[in-house]
Write a structure and sequence with these properties.
- This protein has helices at about 5-30, 45-60, 85-95, 100-105, 110-115, 120-125, 150-155, 165-170, 195-205, 225-240, 255, 270-280, 320-330, 335-340, 385-400, 410-435, and strands spanning about 35-40, 60-65, 80, 135-145, 185-190, 245, 260-265, 285-290, 300, 305-315, 350, 370.
- It is globular, with a radius of gyration of 29 Å.
- The termini are far apart.
- It has 16 helices and 12 strands.
- Strands 3, 4, 5, 6, 7, 8, 10 and 11 form an 8-stranded mixed sheet that branches.
- By secondary structure, the chain is an alpha/beta fold.
């Protein structure tokens, strides 16, 4: 005879097992509904290709959805995607982003990720209150690419890291104005297609921390000692034929065709060189790269960095932890970043263990500088119609200076005077246009 206490235990155990099985059956018939994270990413297919599919594979309980806020303003993203630092700063000012600092502080993986990121990226993203409100998966950098063969052929010393604009332009002026078979040859080519020489002059000034227009009053101030020294360097190089100034040239960039010895390019330049050689049937060039021109007073800094793929957490989201998991993946998953790079997605990874590599070339010049956070682009603060009106006047006067009709100092005085008139007229015209619209 089985003891009563064993019967009681057996029945109780059976009931417990049945309860567990029943609960398991309920759970299997009603799986947990996935969380949907909305991202204001402009290209849905690209979002999934770069991040979504791989992330969802690792996190089956989370789905990524691209939303277009322009089509439906009632929507809000859980993850805020930003394409520029200006957009990022605006989001911070409008208090639309959550600070990542407390999230990183309580997450061991987040702390490790921060150590893996390039200081270029974190320095650029640090806010005025020293907070990180977002992280970026990639960044871009500019460098001075040069044609090794041309330098060797004409006995000109190679450019070096951390040259000033004046040094670069002096180097450019050492090349003859004609190459083989009488073809034009230039020491340096800009990336401008109009107002070429004057735009280069303003770019050089921006590198050295100079400003030519007050963002509020729109007063022009360019007839100064520092601007004057730069202007003389630009005029001298342009007069000697050192600056490529063919606005309507078309075709491949002059660096790729062998018409220019130096040109500022980004990390994608090696790919574009190869493509141009195939498309235009050009001989491949032997090239090197050094840092973009620097401010001689701050030679360790560069204002040729930019960010792309900036992800932050929306202040309105209910899924802050899940959004943080996505950002960690997008920025720090080495395998996924390598896959993206293998597909030809350009730019430089923010994580330092995935290096920018081009066979046989040292690319360290693109990542060795610190970002110049004090750099100001006048187009960020002044309407482009006003800036362009000033540049048109500047180019016209500069062409006269190149022809020797004006000295550099005379030209600068005229640019300041006529440029101010052009700015005032453009300001009035813009006000009228805005009033009509």
């Amino acid at each position: 005879m089985i003891p009563t206490r064993w019967l009681i235990f057996t029945v109780s155990a059976a009931l417990a097992i049945m309860t567990l099985l029943s609960a398991a059956g309920c759970n299997s018939s009603k799986p947990e509904k996935p969380i949907v994270l909305r991202v204001n990413y402009p290209f849905e297919n690209r979002l999934y290709q770069q991040y979504g599919y791989a992330f969802e594979k690792q996190h089956p309980n989370i789905r990524i959805e691209a939303v277009d806020l322009k089509l439906d303003k009632a929507l809000y993203p859980d993850i805020v995607f930003m394409t520029s630092l200006d957009d990022y700063k605006q989001q911070i000012e409008q208090e639309k982003l959550v600070s990542l600092e407390p999230i990183i502080a309580r997450d061991r993986e987040g702390g490790e990720l921060l150590k893996r990121l390039s200081p270029i990226v974190t320095d650029m993203l640090r806010s005025s209150d020293n907070q990180l409100y977002a992280l970026s998966a990639y960044y871009s950098s500019g460098g001075l690419f040069y044609n090794i063969d041309l330098f060797q052929k004409y006995g000109v010393p190679f450019p070096t890291n951390r040259m000033s604009w004046s040094e670069v332009l002096q180097l450019a002026a050492r090349f003859p104005d004609r190459g083989e078979q009488g073809k034009p040859l230039f020491g340096f080519a800009t990336n401008y297609y109009e107002d070429i020489v004057f735009s280069l002059f303003l770019e050089a000034g921006e590198t050295e921390g100079l400003s030519f227009i007050h963002p509020k009053t729109l007063d022009i101030s360019i007839d100064t000692e520092k601007w004057g020294r730069l202007y003389e360097s630009v005029i001298r190089s342009a007069s000697d034929g050192g600056i490529y100034n063919r606005a309507d040239a078309g075709g491949a960039d002059p660096l790729y065709t062998g018409e220019a010895a130096m040109q500022l390019k980004s990390e994608n330049a090696p790919v574009y060189m190869e493509q141009a050689a195939k498309f235009y049937k050009l001989d491949p060039i032997h090239w090197g790269v050094v840092t973009a021109p620097v401010n001689p007073e701050r030679p360790e800094y560069s204002n040729y960095y930019s960010l792309y793929g900036i992800f932050g957490i929306s202040a309105d989201t209910r899924y802050k932890d899940e959004a943080w998991e996505f950002i960690k993946f997008a920025v720090g998953n080495t395998d996924n970043i390598r896959r993206n790079m293998a597909r030809g997605d350009g730019m430089i990874p923010a994580i330092q263990e995935v290096e920018l590599a081009v066979d046989g070339h040292d690319m360290s010049a693109l990542t060795m500088q610190l970002p110049e956070k004090a750099a100001i682009d006048p187009y960020d603060e002044v309407p482009y119609e006003i800036i362009n009106a000033f540049k048109a006047v500047g180019e016209e006067v500069t062409e006269r200076a190149i022809r020797g009709e004006l000295s550099a100092s005379e030209a600068l005085r005229e640019i300041e005077r006529k440029g101010q008139l052009a700015v005032d007229e453009a300001k009035i015209a813009l006000a009228v246009t805005n009033a009509v619209n």
